[in-house]
Amino acid sequence: MKRILTVQDISCFGKCSLTVALPVISAMGVETVILPTAVLSTHTMFQGFTVKDLSDQIGPVTEHWKKEGFTFDAIYTGYLGTEEQIGQMEQLFDDFRTENTLIFVDPVMADNGKLYPAFDMNYARKNAELCGRADIIVPNITEAAFMTGMEYRTKYDESYIKEMLDRLADLGTKTVVLTGVSLSEGKTGVMGLNTQTGEHFLYQNDKVDASYHGTGDIFSSVCIGALMNDLSLPEAMKLAADYTAHTIRVTLENPEKPWYGVDFEATVPELVRTLEEAKKR
Ligand code: PXL
Predict the structure, then answer these.
(1) Which of 11, 54, 259 for a ligand 1 pocket mutation test, highest count of atoms within 8 Å of Cβ?
(2) What is the position in ligand 1's atom list of the atom closest to the CA of 16?
(3) Is residue 109 scored above 90 in pLDDT?
(4) Are residues 81 and 9 in contact, defined by beta-carbon separation less than 8 angstroms?
(5) d(C-alpha 201, C-alpha 29), whole Å
(6) Among residues 14, 73, 134, 269, which one has the fewest Cβ atoms lying within 10 Å of its Cβ?
């Protein structure tokens, strides 16, 4: 069985980060080791959330793992609370990276043209550095704008996206994938660039007219879970994009739909079935 390490916070209430990554990746048949970077009472879209930073645990925990000789097929980082923690991830990559370890960085820090409350431009610059050390990064357009210095636009064409992909590639990442890319009316999806072959790939599905918290974490978790099941990157992107859109639709049908996250618990069995079908192809 493949084993991945995912490093991100625990937002106790709120359906995001580790409370999404752990169940989703495990359900996809991949051993999921977690390294919590902080414990928050809720995610940061709630007012008055509490935070206990766990940066001082990262060193001792990983030292123990090194002594045990643990290895990982992939390392997936998500929301990291501070610049210091991003620095700790650079050390962690050095400590655990082997020829076969896939480093997947989701530089969670912004959306809809704005940085999340806890972050500033220094944080964005440090995140760009971490992205440079990754095999695959999956920023949204806002995050990419902050990391490349490009203007954030809501209306754009393919040349804007391709330039963004090129500038992200300049950070040093092997494969860059932009999420939330809409190249025609009523559609949304992802566009990626393999910097080694210069090849672009695009996947567009029907846009669901709702934006939900935690959906980026669902997308990333499904994507890394699919890659660990030996799907190709375009196949993994398609599975992740379709599943995320489907889960938003199912959530919208729930009369008691929570505002703070999506009902992935209702759709995980279907994800597992779709993954099994994709593996047979
Ligand atoms: O879903 C991303 C995320 C993860 N963790 C925390 C967050 C957010 C987004 O706001 O606040 C604590």
Answers:
(1) 11
(2) 1
(3) yes
(4) yes
(5) 27
(6) 269
- Look over the chain and give the mean of its residue pLDDT values, rounded to a whole number: 96
pLDDT at 222 over 90: yes
pLDDT of residue 180: 95
CB 81 within 8 A of CB 51: yes
> Phi and psi at residue 103, in whole multiples of 5°?
-100, 120
End-to-end Cα distance, the chain:
20
Residue located nearest, by CA, to atom 7 of ligand 1: 43
Taking CA 33 as the corner, what is the angle to CA 52 and CA 4, rounded to the nearest 5 degrees? 125
- pLDDT at position 12 is 98
CA-proximal residue: ligand 1, atom 1 (nearest): 214
d(CA 239, CA 255): 26
Q: Are 20 and 264 in contact (CB under 8 A)?
A: yes
Are 78 and 108 contacting, i.e. CB atoms less than 8 angstroms apart? Answer: yes
SS3 176: strand
> What pLDDT, on a 0 to 100 scale, did the predictor assign at position 246?
96
Euclidean distance between CA atoms 14 and 16, whole angstroms: 6
Question: Rounded CA gap, 109 and 257, in Å?
Answer: 25
- Output the ligand 1 site: residues, CB below 6 A: 9, 11, 16-17, 40, 43-45, 79, 108, 116, 213-214, 216-217
- 169 half-sphere exposure, CB direction, 13 A CA radius: 17
